[in-house]
Amino acid sequence: MSAPPKTMKAVVENEAENGVEVKEIPLPPLEDNEILVKVDHVTLNPTDWKHVAALSTKGSIIGCDYAGTVVEVPGSVSHQRSHIRAGARVAGWVHGGLFKDRGAFAQYLKVPADLTFPIPDDMPSEQACTFGIPFYTAFHALKYSQKGPWPPAKAGGWFLVYGGSSGVGLFAIQLAKLMGHLVVTACSARNFDLVKSYGADAVVDYKDADAIIKIKQVTGGGVHKALDCISLPDSNAFTLACFAEGKGQMNVILPPDSKAVAARPDVDVQSTLLYTLWGRAFEFGPRGGAKIPLPAIKEELEFHRELVAKIPEFIALGFKAPPIETRGGIDDIAQGLADMRDGKLSGKRYVYTIE
Ligand SMILES: NC(=O)c1ccc[n+]([C@@H]2O[C@H](COP(=O)([O-])OP(=O)(O)OC[C@H]3O[C@@H](n4cnc5c(N)ncnc54)[C@H](OP(=O)(O)O)[C@@H]3O)[C@@H](O)[C@H]2O)c1
C-alpha cells in the first residue's frame, strides 16, 4: 500500500449561500490511539445538512458515516484487534461538522482505533457505511437509555417506533425485534412494505386520522416504550398519546416539545444527543450564537466501545442496512445535502463513492 499523500479533498463549510465546497486540505494529524482510514463510501444524515446550515464554522469538515480501508496504524495505537492493520476494511461514524481535522466527507479520516468496526467480508462498503449515526442512535435510545437487553433477547411487549421508514427507524425496528418486542410503527403508506420487511409487526399511516386509535387497538391499550424517530412537536404528541396509562419511557432525538411532555407526566421522556458517545467535552450551538457546553461522559464512551465491539455479532444476527441510492462522488454531496434538507429522501440513504 502506497504512503498517503500530504493533502486530500474534503467537503468543508464555507458559510456561503450553498454552505459547502470541496477543498484540498492537509490530511488530519493523528492523535494518540487514532488510525488513518482511506474513505471509499459515505452516507448522508440530516445532521450533516443541519450542521452546514447553522452549526459548522468555516473550514469544518462535514460528514459522519463512512466505510473505508485502514492505511496507517501508528505505534501509539494500543488497541489490539485483527482489523487494526493496514488494508483492513472498516466502517463507523465520526463527529463531523464541528472540526477542521475530523469529518467523513473526505478522502481520508482519523478515528480512534477502538471506535471503528470491521466490515464483514460479504458486506459491500456501500451498505457498511450506513451502520453509522442511525444504527448507533437506535442502540443509544433502546439499549443505553431505556436499558433494554443486548440482543438476542426475549423482552416482550409492544414497542412503538414512530417514523419507522427513517434511517433511525429502520434500525430501531430491527433492534426492538431482536430485543424480543412486538413492533408497531407509523410511516407513510408508500413505506408500509418496507417497514414490514425490516420486521414491523403492525404499521399505521401517521396521516390517518384514526392512527392513534389503531395503535391502541393493535397493542391492546397502548405501549410502555417508544422511540420518536422524528421528534417534532406533532410526533411527540402522537407518540405520547399511544402510551398506556402508567409508567413508560419515550425517547426523543431532538429536544422534546414541552407542551406534549407536560400532557403525559406518567411517561419518562429522555433525549439522546449521539455526539456525547465520543466521551469528549464539546460545545453545541448555532454558528455565532450561544453554545451549550457538553461535558465528557465516561459511561457513554464505555458504552460506545462495547457497542462497536459487538457490531459484527449484530450483523451476523441479521441486522441489515437500509435501502441505498448510490448517487455519485464527493462533488455531488452538496446536492444530496440540499435534497435531504428539502425533504426529498424517503425510506433510504444516499450513498457516495469517494475516490
Ligand atoms: N439526537 C441525535 O443524536 C440524533 C441522531 C440521529 C438523528 N437525529 C435526528 O432524527 C431525525 C431523523 O433522522 P434520520 O436520519 O432517521 O432521518 P431520515 O432517514 O432522513 O428521515 C426521512 C424519513 O422521515 C420520515 N418522516 C418525515 N416526516 C415525518 C413525520 N412527520 N412523521 C413520520 N415520519 C416522517 C419520512 O417518512 P415517510 O416518507 O414514510 O413519510 C422519511 O422516510 C432527524 O431530525 C435527525 O437530525 C438525531
UniProtKB/TrEMBL annotation:
InterPro entries referenced in this protein's UniProt entry, alphabetically: ADH-like_C, ADH-like_N, ER, GroES-like_sf, NAD(P)-bd_dom_sf, Trans-enoyl_RdTase-like
Residue span, Enoyl reductase (ER) domain: 19-351
Alphabetized GO MF terms: oxidoreductase activity, acting on NAD(P)H
Database matches in SMART domains: PKS_ER (SM00829)
Coiled coil: none
Domain of life: Eukaryota
Name of the protein: Putative Enoyl reductase
Source organism: Cutaneotrichosporon oleaginosum
